[in-house]
């Protein structure tokens, strides 16, 4: 990762925070984007304290103008971006008949529109870097929910299915330009994401998994993202499903 410039969204906690730290440990200059300024600055300070190079940019990725402004700052302060990890997301579970429209919109806005805003902001940089003969990576965080049929997960699963299929489609355009496009599809990860879930059945399912099996940690996913970006330039690991060994649902 030495010499690379990475952008990580959702970097104030969980998978995003762990990935930003891991990329910095491997030598990348990392821009951390998320809404929570205090958490973001704390993560950046921790990276800097370990000898890494980190830039904290409090940004709501659902705000297109804010993401574009953040992209300008990253380029000005760190250089051309060659690795984008579009990771920010939210999980709000309910049965469709509950008509929790605000929850639907929140997931669509962050999980889909937030990713598209991120792509808009950085895809030109990825293309330019690739044209210069250097590695360029666009990586998203999907979920096993993209392909599993889980009751009450309809909208969340739909947003993640969008990301998984988007990866396949973008490769037809960006792959020929030598920009690698990848997605990671984790199973149960011990992060704060389940804390957003208010549905009793879904909460019970996740709590049982956390209690009964050795779930993934954010660092496990971070290591996988780092591996995707570190293989030879002609190799594109397109879709990686990451499951706890004991997870069966």
Amount of helix: 40-55%
**Nearest-angstrom radius of gyration?**
17 Å
What is the percentage of strand-forming residues?
Answer: 5-15%
Oligomeric category = single chain
Query: In terms of per-residue confidence, which ranges show pLDDT below 50 for 5 or more consecutive residues?
Result: none
Main-sheet strand order equals 3-2-1-4-5-6-7
In angstroms, what separates the terminal alpha carbons?
35 Å
Biggest β-sheet: count, sense, barrel? Answer: 7 strands, parallel
Structure classification: alpha/beta
Order of helices and strands: EHEHEHEHEHEHHE
Give me the number of helical elements: 7
Count of beta strands = 7
Mean pLDDT score, rounded?
Answer: 94
Shape: globular
Tell me what the structure shows.
With 249 residues, this protein is α/β, with parallel strands linked by helices. Helices cover 47% and strands 15% of the residues. The chain has seven helices and seven strands; from the N terminus they run E-H-E-H-E-H-E-H-E-H-E-H-H-E. It has helices at residues 14-25, 37-49, 64-77, 101-131, 154-174, 200-212, 218-230; strands spanning 5-9, 29-34, 53-58, 83-86, 137-141, 180-186, 239-242. The radius of gyration is 17 Å and the shape is globular.
């Amino acid at each position: 990762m030495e010499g690379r410039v990475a952008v990580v969204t959702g970097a104030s906690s969980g998978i995003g925070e762990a990935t930003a730290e891991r990329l910095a440990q491997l030598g990348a200059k990392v821009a951390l984007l998320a809404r929570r300024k205090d958490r973001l600055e704390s993560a950046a300070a921790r990276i800097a304290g370990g000898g890494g190079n980190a830039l904290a940019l409090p940004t709501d990725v659902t705000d297109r103008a804010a993401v574009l402004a953040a992209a300008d700052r990253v380029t000005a302060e760190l250089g051309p971006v060659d690795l984008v990890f579009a990771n920010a997301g939210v999980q709000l579970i309910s049965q469709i008949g509950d008509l929790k429209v605000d929850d639907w919109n929140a997931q669509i806005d962050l999980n889909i529109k937030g990713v598209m805003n991120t792509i808009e902001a950085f895809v030109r940089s990825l293309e330019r870097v690739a044209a210069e003969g250097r590695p360029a990576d666009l990586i998203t965080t999907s979920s096993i929910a993209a392909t599993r049929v889980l009751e009450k997960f309809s909208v969340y699963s739909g947003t993640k299915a969008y990301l998984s299929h988007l990866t396949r489609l973008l490769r037809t355009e960006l792959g020929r330009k030598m920009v690698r496009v990848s997605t990671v599809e984790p199973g149960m990860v011990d992060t704060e994401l389940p804390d957003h879930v208010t549905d009793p059945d879904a909460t019970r399912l996740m709590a049982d998994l956390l209690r009964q099996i050795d779930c993934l940690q954010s660092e496990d996913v971070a290591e996988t993202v780092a591996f995707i970006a570190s293989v030879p330039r002609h190799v594109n690991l397109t879709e990686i499903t990451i499951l706890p060994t004991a997870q069966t649902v």
